[in-house]
Design brief:
By secondary structure, the protein is mostly helical. Helices cover about 75% and strands about 0% of the residues. A two-stranded antiparallel sheet has the order 1-2.
Length: about 300
């Protein structure tokens, strides 16, 4: 394996959890719901996936349990914000704090244990293609799911009737309700999908990226995923590009440390988050672009007429 190939492989591994969490949150926000609890769902998915894999000996069951954990956590958010009409911002922040604390408690007994790693799946013939063979066709199942999810979500949002209804709810939930579209049901399903994606992103961290459990191993990826949705202006294919851009920044700072550049390691570790801030500042300056793609009902509670 060449150095360039090794670097590209590490970038794909670093970008996959960002891509999964962001594509799930994109669907949630397209429905008009703002869930700031992505970080909490990722870390819960990570600890539950690791624990399930350790107890069952199967990384695939671990990934499935990780998705379920993220989905259940998102249901808590959905019940509080959609049924009880709690503030979405406050509830999302509370969900993140709860997830970070609860995951630490659940994972305490698993600290220091060697994890069960998700195996790579080599696609015959294609995996032997120079350079791109290992990069695209000799990867783990979660990587393949992340790529297919981008194109699947893009097709769903812009080519199907249900996708049109979801976008209509995000743009004007009152008008969608008047047309007979079930706003609450659609938003519940969108939030659950986002939670499952975040849980799978967490499972990738503890089963692929670093097959072990470390407290707070999500390390701010949930916040980067939220920024990615804005960076991509709520378009799935742009999320794909943005996730790999941020993955490259993350891996770049690790290689810079390994090569011994005379830059403080703390600054290099902060680069992904500095890049996030810079991108958001640049985007916010183009108000026309932001308003053109932002779901008009984003973050607004909906109470159907009695």
């Amino acid at each position: 394996m060449t150095l360039a190939e090794a670097i590209l492989l590490t970038i794909t591994t670093a970008a996959t959890p960002l891509l999964l969490a962001a594509i799930g949150e994109l669907v949630v926000e397209r429905s008009g719901v703002l869930n700031l609890g992505v970080e909490g769902m990722i870390v819960m998915g990570a600890v539950v996936a690791f624990a399930a894999a350790q107890l069952t000996g199967s990384a695939y069951l671990g990934a499935l349990f990780g998705m379920a954990a993220g989905c259940l956590f998102s249901l808590l958010f959905a019940f509080l914000t959609l049924t009880l009409v709690a503030n979405q911002v406050a509830t999302g922040l509370a969900l993140t704090i709860l997830g970070l604390g609860l995951s630490g408690m659940i994972g305490e007994s698993f600290v220091g244990q060697r994890g069960v790693q998700l195996e790579e799946i080599a696609i015959p013939v294609l995996s032997s293609i120079p350079l791109i063979g290992n990069l695209l066709f000799n990867q783990d199942l979660i990587f393949y799911i992340s790529i297919f999810s981008v194109f699947g979500v893009s097709w769903f949002l812009f080519k199907t009737r249900l996708g049109l209804q979801l976008r209509a709810i995000g743009d004007s939930h009152g008008s969608a309700h008047a047309l007979g579209i079930s706003v609450i049901k659609t938003r519940y399903l969108a939030v659950m999908f986002g939670g499952a994606c975040a849980g799978l992103a967490g499972a990738q961290l503890s089963l692929v990226y670093t097959p072990q459990w470390v407290e707070n191993m999500s390390a701010g990826r949930g916040w980067i995923a939220l920024a990615l949705v804005v960076f991509a202006s709520w378009r799935p294919l742009r999320v794909l590009a943005g996730a790999y851009l941020f993955g490259a920044v993350t891996i770049g700072q690790l290689h810079a440390q390994a090569l011994g550049f005379g830059i403080p390691s703390q600054f290099l570790s902060a680069l992904p988050y500095l890049a996030t801030i810079v991108v958001l500042v640049i985007i916010s300056r183009n108000r026309r672009l932001t308003l053109m793609n932002t779901p008009a009902s984003l973050g607004q509670s909906f109470v159907p007429d009695r």
